Amino acid sequence: MREYYIRREGDEDASGPFDIDQISSLIEANKLDASAYFYDIETESWLTISSNQELMDTLFPKKRKLSLRTEASEEEKKRLVEEEAAKAALAASEAAKTQAEANENPELSDQAEVPSENSPKESAGKSKKAEEEPSSDEGKKKKKKKGEKPEMRQKLEVTKMLALAEGRADDPGGRSPREKQAAVAFFGLRFLTAFFAASILAMAYIEKDLVLSADAIAMAKSPYLLIAAFDLIITVTLLLQVTEVYPVIRFRAAVGAGLLTMLYYSSGDTILLVSNILLMGAIYFSSAIIKIRLLIACGAAGLLGICGYAYSFFL
User: Fold this and answer.
1) Is 196:234 a contact under the CB 8 Å cutoff?
2) Same domain assignment for residues 229 and 293
3) Strand, helix or coil at 207?
């Protein structure tokens, strides 16, 4: 689920990250409204909730009265009820008339009780006809199934319409583009954290003798340790999920690709040079791309760069 950083108008610090359910709870508690700001990872800027239609529909849904369309209108239902009542009254009157005639002529009632002798052909024809005629329950079930077909088609049409509105025409059951971009941003943040942690360890290992000596003045003059200190600050901000530093991260990757490449080239270490280019390229593009396939490629390039550092240092 996508998470957002929230800042109300006049606040200096942002709060979060919050998911949609937490933001809805804050709105219900009257602690947030549509004028609050959220950080958009796509534009890398603060936008009001009211400017994002998707968030407005989710957090401030419009109450609509839904009307179900039935097969029979109210007039048809009323007519059917009246017909049933008329049939019941007619059947009751016929039953009363028959009973009165039976009371007046007992001989007729005795004759009525005597079963008629039908021929074998007539009996077989009646039994066959009874077998062919479906029961009332089966007829009702068939009618019900026929009545459900338009509803199923209507549900499918609604699903397709929603998919088209969210840009999922090819995959109506899949995720929307915003959900996919949020997933890419989630994994990209984790990749960047791992890459900067590896960079800190590599810079510290290159100047391990200087680090062990604890000479602050000499350490301040080392370009490797200065880069490691800067990377440590960025790593802390990434652990706090502060995505506002992405432009700084890209600047750091560009500087690292230029400065460290020159230092490794002057020292004649080709493995470190190639590893640095792979790692800096992975850092740069992991903070800029929005497609999962490209992010996986950047992750593989960064892993190769880390392996190159490890090979150069320990093998």
Assistant:
1) yes
2) yes
3) coil
- Strand-pairing partners, residue 202, are none
* DSSP label at residue 154: H
Q: How far apart (Å, rounded) are the C-alpha atoms in residues 55 and 182?
A: 14
In 3-state terms, the chain is what percent helix, strand and coil (to 5)? 70, 5, 25
Whole-angstrom CA distances from 38 to 1, 20, 45, 49, 209 are 16, 12, 8, 6, 46
Could you give phi then psi for residue 37, rounded to 5 degrees? -105, 150
User: Could you tell me if residue 64 is inside a domain?
Assistant: no
Is 77 or 261 the better-scoring residue by pLDDT? Answer: 261
pLDDT at 60 over 60: yes
What is the residue type of 175?
R
pLDDT tens digit string along 267-303? 888 998 999 999 999 999 998 888 888 999 999 999 9
Please state, as a whole number, how many other Cβ atoms lie within 10 Å of the Cβ of residue 275: 24
Number of other CB atoms surrounding residue 71 within 10 Å = 10
Please indicate whether residue 158 or residue 229 has the higher confidence score (pLDDT).
Answer: 229
Same domain, 214 and 256: yes
For residue 18, is pLDDT > 50? yes
Rounded Cα distance, 231 and 218, in Å: 19
Closest CA to 246 of 201, 182, 188: 188
| Nearest residue to 32 (alpha-carbon basis) of 8, 57, 48 | 8
**How many folded domains does the chain comprise?**
3
Integer Cα distance of 135 and 133 in angstroms: 7
Domain interval for residue 151? 131-174
Token pair belonging to 259: 């400065």
